[in-house]
Amino acid sequence: MRRNLIYLIRGDNMEIKWDLTKLSSILKAFVNVCHMNINVVDSNIKYFDRSHYEHNAYCSEIQKSPKCQELCIHSDKCLFEKCRKSGKFEMQTCPAGLIDIAIPIMWSGEHIGYIVLGQVKINADFNCVAERLAPLDLNMDKMKKYYDELPLFDYNKINDIITLSTIFSKYILMENIFKLESNNIIAATISYIDENLTENLSIQDITHSTGISKSSLYKNFKQQFNCTPGEYINRQRASRSASMLLYSDYSIDEIAERTGFSSASYYSKIFKKVYGISPLKYRKTKSG
In this structure, are residues 220 and 157 in contact, taking their beta carbons and an 8 Å threshold? Predict the structure, then answer.
């Protein structure tokens, strides 16, 4: 049975609960009317239900190649990053020569996801994309056949679809297709870590004190912070140490001890990984 709700983690110990049934219904209607593929992606670039999504033969053939898959993934990430930075829709040509579009879904000034649509051509002539495909070791006769089958759009129609999609992004918010709920696992864990940050924290300590299983702990931290609990602890310790470097006269050894690091050398290694420079250089640069 397909789940009707999907949970996504936010950075303030809340999670976004999407109503998948409503969302899928709207996406299917959009595809039927506009004849353009559409989906919703969360802020971690995780795609939702694809039951309405029709993979065209052109893109399916490209996806068979690991090299092409890598190029497509990189292209998608670049598109979403541009969209995140601009706060408005962004459009680009994918490595296979098709048009992809991303539209931000905003809530209280925060990106909670993107509407992504496209996989359409704006030029009927296959020769316009053949040069892009040449280095990818594909069967060009087959690719031409599949390219010719793709729907042809002009920029006026694409702009109209972008307008509809932007309205759709607001409709998602108005119709409560998502709701915020507290993530008790993250809240309890972060509270425990903050209270014991200077101690010799272990995963066993955290799971024993919070009653959270190890697998659930790792899963939630991966979703929430895209890191392990241990990496999160080091980040928090480095962040706390940064204030000490600027506003105290403690030595590097003392700061390492006061923020829970096992040694000054390990502290310096982690600090440089988080901030890009050594603690001593950070102190001199920021306070000078």
Answer: no
